[in-house]
C-alpha cells in the first residue's frame, strides 16, 4: 500500500474497511524512522537530496529530532557540510543544543544506525505519520464544529473541507480578524518593506520590489530577458537582498555562469573567441576568477541541476523551502513560457496561463516575497521588426498582466553606444496606481522626451545588462583593460 503526493508532500493513505494500526494513547509516530533519517543525514552527504521535499522539521513527533533535522536543513541550504560538529554548532546557535542532548545524542543516533540506506523510505514514514496526526487533529475540530451545529450546514461542511485540505497541504487552522487589527498591525510594522530591483533607474519608477506582488518582464526571443534578470539578481544581492533564482529553461550552472559574466564584465565564451595575447587572456581569466568569488559570496539561492522545477507545484515547493530555511525577498522565475502546458478537456492555453499567474500571486502573498517572472513575446510581434514590443504582444498577455503589479517590457536597439554596447530600451507599462501611463527607464527622467537617454545597455564583452554609471562589480584592473584594447 503506497501513498501519492500532493505538492511534494505525502498524501493521506486511504484504506478500505480495515485499520492499519491499533488505537493507543499516543498519536501515530515512529521514533526509529525519525532517528534513522537523522542518522543518514549525519553519515552521508548525499542523503539530503533524497529527503528534501518529503519531510519537514515540523513532521517529527519527538521535538529534539525535529530540531536536529532543522539544523541539517539550514546547513544544507547554505551549502555547508552536515556533520556531527556542524550540526551541534547549528543547534547551539538556535539555543537547542543542550535540550537536544548535545553531541552525545548525535553520536548515539549515528552509531545506532550507522548507514544511510533506506533514508527516503524512513523520511516517508515520518511524513506519513505526521499526516495521520494532522488528520486526527482535524477530525477533532470537525467533530467540535459538527456538535455545535447551527442552521448553516453549508458553512460547517466548508469548514470541514478546509480542515481536510489543510491536512493534505500541511497547513492547519485559519482565523479572521477585524480590519482595525489589520490596520494596527500595518501601523506597528512601519513603512511597507521593499527591496531594490537591482537597477536604480527602474527603482525610480516602481519604488522597489514589494512583498506580495508580481512583476512580468517581457521581451522578444533573445531579447536580453535572462541577462536582465541575472543582472537584477546579482545587483540586488550585492545590496544584501536575499534572492532565489529558478531557471525553467537553462540549467542552474548556465545561469550561475551568466551571473559571473555580469560581475566580471566579460564572459568565458568571449575570452575563448576573442583574438588576445597570451597575457591578455590570462588577465581576463583572472578577472573572471575574482568575479566568481564575489558572486559565490552573494545570497543567491538556486536549485541544483538535478532538482530544477518543472511545473508550478515544484516552483511553490522551491519557494517554500527557500523562505523556510534561509529567508528570501525576491524570487526570479526564468521563464514562464518554458513551463509545459497540459490542458484538460475544455481548457484553453490562456486559462492555464492565467491559473499559473494566480498561483504566482498566491505564492507572493503567502510567503511574503516579490515574484519576478520573465515572459516571451509572441512570434507575430517578433517578426514585425519593432525594436521594443508592447505589453499586448506578450504571449497570452491578458492572462499574464491581470495578476501582475508591474509589467516591464524590454527591446534591444540595432545600434548602440560604440561597438561594445547595444542600447536596451525598457519601459514600465503598468504599475497599479498609474495604469495607462507608460514610463521609460531613462537616465534623465526630468528632461524633455526627445532628450531622454535609455539607462540600460547590453555589453558585448559580457552578454550582460548594465546601467550607465554602474560598472561591473569587479572593476577591471589596468592589465585587463589593456587586454580589451588588444582585441583585433
Summary?
This protein is α/β, with parallel strands linked by helices and 488 residues long. It is 46% helix and 12% strand.
Question: Would you write up a description of this structure?
Answer:
By secondary structure, the protein is an alpha/beta fold. It folds into 2 domains: 5-12 and 27-169, DNAb Helicase, Chain A, CATH 1.10.860.10; 200-485, P-loop containing nucleotide triphosphate hydrolases (Rossmann fold, 3-Layer(aba) Sandwich), CATH 3.40.50.300. It has 19 helices and 12 strands. Strands 3, 4, 5, 6, 7, 8, 9, 10, 11 and 12 form a 10-stranded mixed beta sheet that branches. A two-stranded antiparallel ribbon has the order 1-2. The chain is globular. The protein starts with a strand and ends with a helix. The model is unreliable at 1-24 (pLDDT under 50).
Keywords:
alpha/beta; DNAb Helicase, Chain A; Rossmann fold; ten-stranded mixed sheet; two-stranded antiparallel sheet; 19 helices; 12 strands; 46% helix
What's the architecture of the largest domain, going by CATH? 3-Layer(aba) Sandwich
Tally of individual domains: 2
Enter the CATH topology name of the largest domain: Rossmann fold
Structural class: alpha/beta
Reading off the top of the CATH hierarchy, the class of the largest domain is best stated as Alpha Beta
CATH superfamily of the largest domain: P-loop containing nucleotide triphosphate hydrolases
Number of helices: 19
Amino acid at each position: 500500500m503506497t501513498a501519492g503526493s500532493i505538492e511534494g508532500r505525502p498524501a493521506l493513505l486511504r484504506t478500505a474497511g480495515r485499520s492499519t494500526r491499533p488505537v493507543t494513547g499516543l498519536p501515530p509516530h515512529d521514533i526509529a524512522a525519525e532517528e534513522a533519517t537523522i542518522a543518514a543525514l549525519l553519515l552521508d552527504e548525499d542523503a539530503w537530496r533524497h529527503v528534501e521535499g518529503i519531510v519537514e522539521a515540523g513532521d517529527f513527533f519527538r521535538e529534539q529530532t525535529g530540531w536536529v533535522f532543522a539544523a541539517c536543513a539550514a546547513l544544507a541550504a547554505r551549502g555547508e557540510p552536515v556533520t556531527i560538529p556542524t550540526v551541534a554548532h547549528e543547534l547551539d546557535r538556535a539555543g537547542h543544543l543542550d535540550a537536544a542532548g548535545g553531541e552525545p545524542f548525535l553520536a548515539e543516533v549515528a552509531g545506532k544506525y550507522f548507514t544511510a540506506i533506506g533514508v527516503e523510505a524512513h523520511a516517508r514514514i515520518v511524513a506519513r505519520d505526521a499526516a495521520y496526526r494532522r488528520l486526527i487533529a482535524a477530525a477533532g475540530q470537525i467533530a467540535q464544529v459538527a456538535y455545535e451545529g447551527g442552521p448553516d450546514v453549508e458553512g460547517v461542511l466548508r469548514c470541514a473541507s478546509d480542515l481536510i485540505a489543510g491536512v493534505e497541504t500541511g497547513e492547519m487552522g485559519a482565523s479572521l480578524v477585524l480590519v482595525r487589527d489589520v490596520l494596527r498591525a500595518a501601523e506597528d510594522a512601519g513603512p511597507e518593506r521593499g527591496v531594490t530591483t537591482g537597477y536604480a533607474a527602474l527603482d525610480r519608477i516602481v519604488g522597489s520590489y514589494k512583498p506580495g506582488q508580481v512583476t512580468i518582464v517581457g521581451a522578444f526571443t533573445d531579447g536580453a530577458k535572462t541577462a536582465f534578470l541575472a543582472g537584477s539578481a546579482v545587483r540586488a544581492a550585492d545590496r544584501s537582498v536575499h534572492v532565489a533564482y529558478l531557471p525553467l529553461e537553462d540549467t542552474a550552472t548556465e545561469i550561475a555562469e551568466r551571473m559571473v559574466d555580469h560581475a566580471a564584465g566579460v564572459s568565458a565564451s568571449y575570452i575563448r573567441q576573442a583574438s588576445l595575447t597570451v597575457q591578455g587572456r590570462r588577465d581576463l581569466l583572472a578577472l573572471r576568477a575574482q568575479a566568481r568569488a564575489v558572486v559565490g559570496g552573494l545570497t543567491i539561492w538556486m536549485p541544483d541541476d538535478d532538482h530544477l522545477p518543472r511545473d508550478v507545484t515544484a516552483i511553490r515547493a522551491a519557494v517554500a523551502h527557500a523562505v523556510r530555511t534561509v529567508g528570501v525577498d525576491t524570487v526570479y522565475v526564468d521563464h514562464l513560457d518554458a513551463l509545459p502546458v497540459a490542458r484538460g478537456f475544455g481548457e484553453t492555453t490562456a486559462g492555464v496561463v492565467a491559473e499559473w499567474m494566480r498561483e504566482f500571486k498566491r505564492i507572493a502573498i503567502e510567503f511574503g516575497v516579490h515574484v519576478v517572472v520573465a515572459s516571451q513575446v509572441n512570434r507575430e510581434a517578433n517578426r514585425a521588426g519593432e525594436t521594443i514590443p508592447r505589453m499586448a504582444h506578450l504571449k497570452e498577455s491578458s492572462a499574464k498582466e491581470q495578476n501582475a503589479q508591474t509589467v516591464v517590457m524590454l527591446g534591444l536597439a540595432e545600434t548602440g553606444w560604440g561597438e561594445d554596447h547595444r542600447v536596451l530600451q525598457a519601459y514600465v507599462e503598468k504599475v497599479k496606481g498609474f495604469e495607462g501611463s507608460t514610463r521609460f527607464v531613462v537616465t534623465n527622467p526630468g528632461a524633455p522626451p526627445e532628450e531622454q537617454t535609455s539607462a540600460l545597455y547590453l555589453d558585448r564583452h559580457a552578454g550582460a545588462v548594465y546601467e550607465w554609471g554602474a560598472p561591473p562589480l569587479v572593476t577591471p584592473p589596468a592589465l585587463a583593460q589593456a587586454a580589451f584594447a588588444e582585441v583585433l
